[in-house]
Amino acid sequence: MRTGDLDRGAPAGLPAAVPSGRTLVMGVLNVTPDSFSDGGAYLDPRRAVEHGIAMVDRGADLVDVGGESTRPGATPVDPDEEIRRVEPVIRDLAAHGVLVSVDTLHSATAQAALDAGARIVNDVSAGVHDPRILDVAARADAVVVLQHRRGEAGTMTELTAYDDLVPDVVAELAQRREAALAAGVPAARIVLDPGLGFAKTAAQSWEVLARLEELAALGHPLLVGTSRKRFLARAVADGADRSGDATDRDAVTAATTALLAARGVWAVRVHDVRPSADAVAVAAELAPYDRDRPR
Ligand code: PMM
């Protein structure tokens, strides 16, 4: 683990106005009744758009809009309902000049989101759930985030038996990368994500987080989502996480952002934007003075 060791640049094809040379902060906007930390808060499209813009005002560089909860055991959502939730929100945010990604498993939702102005497709199944999503992204010249997981929301907590955790995660993501390339997504538009908390125990999530250089060796920019996840609970001081309120993990989330930004990941996906934007700024202030940093 060393400064800058995860830096693989930025994906191609994003607007020139997107900052470069530092880690980006992706704000989470869940337009769902049941997401684990903010479910139900932004089901009304007007409130969702207001929250998206407020996140940009607080330092988000892009906003990830999702209409289906990915938490373990969540109820699957029909793509028609998912489109009804996310499409108006994406259209409005894009019209305000916000860079938008869509967090979806479904090709129909990805298509509707791209038509509404999203530029990034974030699929937590990396094209396993609905392989046509990769064709949709390729045709639209979108950036694609391929996240590691096993199984579906209902089964993934049972699928944590790995032969060799980090090499297995890397090999499974490498296969998804091959599927994306075969669908016509250029390598330069692929971002990889280790999928912390997805088919991983708490200890496994910490280990993957510590060993991200093995994932970076595949040569793609990394997106990492630690925000409010259960595995962080053991790092919350004084057992303050006992309330079951996921916002108790916001300070620990920002601490992970500082480390990830120092290591040069492309982006972090967070709910509470301001502390992570500050953490990125801390890493950016220190970076020029680090004589070991790869350039
Ligand atoms: N985590 C959640 C949802 N989508 N997408 C990516 N690429 N990486 C993640 O870690 C990730 C994700 C977890 O659910 P939340 O939206 O309630 O935080």
Order of helices and strands: EHEHEHEHEHEHHEHEH
Main sheet specs: 8 strands, parallel
Work out the number of β strands. 8
> What structural class do helix, strand and pairing data support?
alpha/beta
Distance between the termini: 16 Å
Count helical runs: 9
Ligand types: pterin-6-yl-methyl-monophosphate
Biggest sheet strand line-up: 6-5-4-3-2-1-8-7
What is the average per-residue confidence, as pLDDT, rounded to a whole number?
94
- Principal-axis shape equals globular
Strand content: 5-15%
What integer value in Å does the Rg equal?
A: 18 Å
Uncertain runs: none
Helix content: 25-40%
Word description of this protein:
The protein has 295 residues and is α/β, with parallel strands linked by helices. 36% of the residues lie in helices and 12% in strands. The protein has helices at 45-57, 79-95, 107-115, 132-139, 165-182, 202-210, 213-216, 250-263, 273-286; strands at residues 24-30, 62-66, 100-103, 120-123, 143-147, 190-193, 223-224, 267-270. The chain has an eight-stranded parallel sheet with strand order 6-5-4-3-2-1-8-7. Helix 8 (250-263) runs parallel beside helix 9 (273-286). The longest helix has 18 residues, at 165-182. It is globular, with a radius of gyration of 18 Å. It starts with 23 loop residues before the first strand and ends in a 9-residue tail after the last helix. The mean pLDDT is 94. The structure holds pterin-6-yl-methyl-monophosphate. Pterin-6-yl-methyl-monophosphate (PMM) binds next to strand 1 and strand 5.
